[in-house]
Amino acid sequence: MAPSSLSPAWQALQAHAKTLTRIRLTDLFEQDHARADRFALELEGLFLDYSKNRLTNKTIDLLRALAEEAQLAHWIERLFAGEPVNGSEGRPAFHMALRADPAQPMRIGEVDVMPEVAAQLARMEEFSEALRGGRWTGYDGRPIADLVSIGIGGSYLGPALAVEALAGPKPTGPRVHFLANPDGGAVSRLLAGLDPATTLFLVVSKSFTTAETKLNADAARDWFLAQGGKREDLPKHFRAVSTNRSAVAEFGLDADAAFAMWDWVGGRYSLWSTVGLPIAVAHGFAAFRELLAGARAMDRHFRSAPIERNMPALLALIGLWYNGCHGAESHAIIPYDSALGLLPAYLQQLVMESNGKGVTRDGKAVTMPTSPVVWGGVGTEVQHAFLQAFHQGPRLLPVDFIGVAEDRHGRQAHHEMLLANLIGQAEALMGGSSQTDTQRTCPGNRPSNVILMQRLDARTLGQLLALYEHKTFVEGVVWHINSFDQWGVELGKKLASRVEAEIHYGDALDHHDPSTAALIRRVRNGRGV
Ligand SMILES: O=P(O)(O)OC[C@H]1O[C@H](O)[C@H](O)[C@@H](O)[C@@H]1O
Q1: Sign of the C-alpha dihedral, residues 497, 499, 503, 506?
Q2: What per-residue string of b and e applies to 293-303 under the rule 16 or more CB within 10 Å gives b?
Q3: For atom 7 of ligand 1, which residue has the closest CA?
Q4: Dist. CA 522–CA 520, nearest whole Å
Q5: What is the ipTM of this complex?
Q6: The pLDDT value given to residue 434
Q7: Where located (predicted)?
Q8: Which residue minimizes the CA distance to atom 2 of ligand 1?
Q9: Residues labelled as active-site residues
Q10: Left (φ > 0), alpha (ψ -120 to 50) or beta: where does 432 sit?
Q11: pLDDT tens-digit profile of 79-122?
């Protein structure tokens, strides 16, 4: 990309980056003994240490100028004011209303959405508590023992992450399962372990047009009817979450009984809505409210803190700095807690679906690379797998290490080992080790963020997820892109549904390229078509 196409703030940052090429992170700590305190932030139960980054005071000033140049404060206000920040769909992105203080109005135009939000929360509470209390019974009068949430993308990843993250040693309510992929093996394995009389299926789809979810919901219904359930029993065993009432009714479910959501909530921002029902069923409605409260605390902080003390803005600017001025192409998420194992996958959707865009809000080609490739895994496992490349590979691989300070399992040795490894990795990446043998040398000077959750509870999890939501928004603002649409997903969907029909019906394939046609033929041959 020609430097001339870059804005003044980016040009200043790139020039500044050249002056830092010889600086070592360890020297920055030598020069400033207060660095560890100054480059850290705490918000209730969430602590961010960003001191092990290639940042000086000047870098922070220039990054703040970058945010100001992109009018970040104005965009934050637009976001919270319910303005149509999702320009290509003419909608607000108003997920903050789902977790807002119920006493305060949250308006889109003239309409306060809080009464509707409160009404759905009340329905969620009633339903989830009835399930947990054994008062919701199946067709033979026994309480529901298993909830299967059928949904994909945003209708799966957030709820599945939170259900797993907050799990204790034993379920405290019905067992909660997820069915996302249209994978026959997964469907068969799950159904084989269930009793239709004590299973409830929640079909979660904002659009209720998602092919995978419909196929899995059809399979669940067929199984239910084949295993002894009757049509008149369906309302006890199937409920929907959707904005699309007519499609819910067409599927054969009572649209009035469906849990509503809104087109101003993007799928990947929807775990705070009725989409989060599995979380309330698994952990109780009080926990769900705590999750919302944690996110609300982060919303307040994001809206009010100055950029240099604003956790989401700082994380975003650090990411932009490596992406835009150091050629970093990826961002790794490494939680040192297996309960957060789905966090990398959840953030892949949040970040890459939001910011994997090639044109700006007004349709011009972007002048900087946008979304990094988000990836990761759980520590310490990844130390025995891919962290080698962080220590000695030539690429710059920015990483967030996430840990939980308090042990919640009563297993001190395990807890201490996990956290010692997290801290040790960050230290080793920065310090490196010089040896006479170059093969054994770790050059060091490699950055990382460390996020320590005081404890892994619903409130702190809410804070963490809202932190990454707003971080993603800030990056999108600086790139001048719309973080709330996902038009790229549509093309693949269209082609897949045409190919599916061609596989099934054996249609002519002349309009395909030879590679695609040959692949379709192979699949047909496998089916004997
Ligand atoms: O909730 P649904 O309408 O079924 O959508 C499920 C998912 O599928 C789509 O393809 C989108 O890319 C995702 O953003 C969305 O979360």
Answers
A1: positive
A2: bbbbbbbebbe
A3: 153
A4: 5
A5: 0.98
A6: 85
A7: Cytoplasm
A8: 205
A9: 353, 384, 493
A10: left
A11: 999 999 999 999 999 999 999 999 999 999 999 999 999 999 99
